Amino acid sequence: MKLLSGAGLVLDNMETRIMRCGSTTKMPSCSARNVFASRPSPRKGLFVRAESMTSSSVGDKPAWTGDSLLSKVVNWAIDTPPLYNTLKVFAKQMLINSAESRGVPWGRHVAEMEKRKEIEVIKSEVENPALCYPDYYLKPFHAYENGNLEWLAAFEVQPATYVMAIRTFKDKTDWSGEQCFVELRSRITNAIKSYHVRHGLPLPSIIADMGCSTGMSTTWLSEQFPDANITGLDLSPYFLAVAEWERRHRAATSPSSKRSAPITYVHGLAEQSPFADASLDLVNFNFVIHECPQATISSFIRESQRVLRPGGVLAIVDNNPKSATIQNLPPFLFTTMKSTEPWSDEYYSFDVEAAMRDAGFREVVTVETDHRHRCVMGIRT
Question: What is the pTM of this model?
């Protein structure tokens, strides 16, 4: 496998860590929406709030997920092809409308990216053709029939990411999509930095951004930790091609943005990563695990325990199941959202804190970074 742009100081022997066809670790093959018969009872964990919730009654997860009657009705609608196809169209149009309401040029951005044929060359450079994609990754995420394995999905990541931030701060009507993104990311980074300070830990110097997508989170981390060696890892060569193109474009157009420790992008699996044992200071998952089944989330956590050095930190950022905002979404919105996220039922029913403790992490806490999102952190023993 080729490593783009970095020295790869913390990477182990690639050939021994890669998931190859014929030797793929088996993941559950059951339906993403019919997997709850043997789910253990959830365990409670310490919950640390960064700001108070507005609802006086909040459960462990939204009523429209899991094996509740409401969830089953929603799943029936989603599993009905004519309804599903309609929901997909509405879901995409809602995103585009939200983007353009704040000046995010969704269509123009995609058109400009489609003109950059050099991105296809970069894809051939970063892609590991021997990698075998696990079943959970081959579902039609986010209204894309090929999920994350197509160009349109990669080209729409930036405006879609801005929309996520816009929806989080929709009351800030004078904020641009980029301003909303900066606020969302700043709160997350502040939670991670504060956690390090609270526990007397040095700020990380070697970081892995697992499931880095097109590198927006990786670039943000590189700005927040300017002296750190940072590797972004993702399963989509389309996403990584965009990430690497963006990195090269910044280096060419903004010389001052060059770092002493350049960002490296790697095509691989977070559950069988190429990093050496005890080699990382921070493993960060940004909005990844809601797209995965429970068995895979558990494998991410175990792999993080392997690659982190003692005293290293695992930080998992994602939607907050206890969020009053998410739990009280109108029926049309939660049905539309769930139609594009095939593993929602598993994610919202999974106890991340308990899984981290079971894997050996200590000082596990959840910080609510805004009214929709959380950051779950723990220290490798």
Answer: 0.86
